[in-house]
Design brief:
Elements (H helix, E strand, L loop, with lengths): L6 H12 L8 E6 L4 E10 L2 E6 L2 E6 L3 E7 L8 H4 L26 H4 L31 H11 L7 H13 L5 H13 L5 H6 L7 H7 L12 H20 L11 H5 L4 H22 L1 H15 L12 H11 L12 H15 L4 H14 L11 H15 L1
Antiparallel strand pairs: 1-2, 1-5, 2-3, 3-4
């Protein structure tokens, strides 16, 4: 019996022991979230990054990008060269794998690593803060020229001509006025007032001399009746004369008494203090008459007088009384809101816009004048007196359209 065939397995076992096949590390097939596939030896995970040795080198794959991982068997092409060249058992030698004609594609890397980290854009600078709107204020309009207004008024509405009887009675009353008793003067004043606008030219031309200012002022009482707005020019001229007399009385020595004194001379004051008080009273009486006559023209006249008086520190203290003067200015506009009055809608707007800036002056007297006057001129629903000027401006822009 031939025993040689039984030696073949033993020979094969001996060759295998003489040329041991090296052990292969485990390989993994990795798929990432962006669709790439990696296959290679698992080198472990460190700091959330899986290292995989592929035929293209070691790849580092963030663990958060891995969607699937499984163990696979390595291809023969990937086996080490020592294993490929091991001698085959028996006469059959292991055939080599044919080389590829087309080179393998280059490895693709995850997008997160292929891209260089772009620097974060600098934050946009903050938008510049919008400047706060400046507070709105009332403009100070130029006051109208009272003389021009009165001349235009006189041209439109001339004084009526007196008849013969009126002419004689008015002329006789004015001529006798200086020497008449107080009761007689009151009667003459009532007579002149009854003639209305017919007597205006006579009263305006009477006693123009500054020495007779006291008589002139007493005669002007005939014009102190409500609704006599066109008397403002007469009051304005008389007030200028009375102020000049007051100034002269305060600076010049009193004049010597005349050689022959009439009753009127004897009734006149002689001492300087008495002269000052009498001159100041003449000024204030004219303002009282203008306040009673009322109307837009007399309101403009008193507004101009009082604004100067309470803006000047050198005003004679005999003339200042803010409570009295604010009441007189308000009285000129007492009928401003009535349907039958000398006030037109435009007159209220003009005077209010002249007064509004005074309401916000740093002068309590001017504020009082403005406030008392505006109470008569403005419609209801206005802001409170201590409201901000911007609130007043916005309200007035809407309210004045209702007055015109």
């Amino acid at each position: 019996m031939d025993m040689r065939p039984s030696l073949i397995p033993l020979l094969v076992l001996t060759v295998g022991l003489a040329f041991p096949v090296p052990a292969r590390a485990a390989e993994r097939l990795i798929r990432t979230a962006d669709g790439q596939t990696f296959q290679g030896e698992d080198l472990g995970t460190e700091n959330g990054v899986l290292k995989l040795r592929t035929k293209y080198g070691v790849q580092e794959i963030p663990a958060r990008d891995i969607v699937s991982s499984k163990a696979v068997v390595a291809d023969d092409e990937d086996a080490p060269a020592a294993e490929k060249e091991a001698p085959a058992a028996g006469k059959e030698a292991r055939t080599r794998t044919k080389p590829r004609l087309v080179p393998p594609p280059p490895p693709t890397t995850p997008k997160a690593e292929a891209k260089e980290e772009e620097p974060e854009p600098a934050p946009a600078p903050p938008a510049p803060a919008q400047p706060a709107a400046p507070p709105r204020t009332f403009a100070e309009p130029k006051p109208p020229d009272l003389n021009t207004l009165l001349r235009a008024q006189a041209a439109r509405d001339r004084y009526p001509e007196p008849d013969k009887n009126a002419f004689l009675e008015i002329s006789r009353g004015i001529r006798n006025f200086p020497e008449t008793t107080p009761a007689g003067r009151r009667k003459i004043v009532a007579t002149l007032r009854s003639y209305g606008r017919v007597s205006y030219p006579f009263v305006a031309a009477a006693f123009p001399d500054a020495a007779d200012i006291d008589i002139r002022v007493d005669l002007l009482e005939a014009l102190a009746a409500p609704g006599r707005s066109d008397t403002a020019n007469i009051f304005m001229e008389a007030q200028k004369t009375a102020l000049s007399v007051l100034t002269r009385a305060a600076t010049a020595p009193p004049p010597p008494p005349p050689d022959y004194q009439t009753k009127r001379d004897r009734d006149r004051p002689v001492r300087q203090a008495e002269l000052l008080r009498a001159a100041a009273q003449d000024v204030l009486d004219i303002e009282k008459y203008a306040s009673i006559a009322g109307g837009p023209f007399n309101a403009l006249l008193l507004l101009d007088i009082y604004k100067k008086r309470y803006s000047d520190d050198k005003t004679d203290p005999l003339l200042t009384d803010i409570k009295r003067d604010s009441a007189r200015l308000a009285a000129t506009a007492a009928d401003a809101g009535r349907s039958k009055s000398s006030w037109g809608p435009g007159d209220r707007v003009v005077l209010a816009e002249l007064v509004f800036p005074m309401l916000f002056k740093d002068n309590s007297d001017l504020q009082t004048l403005a406030q008392e006057c505006l109470k008569k001129l403005l419609p209801t629903g206005h802001p409170k007196w201590d409201a901000d000027q911007t609130d007043w401006v916005e309200w007035w822009e809407k309210a004045k359209t209702k007055l015109r």
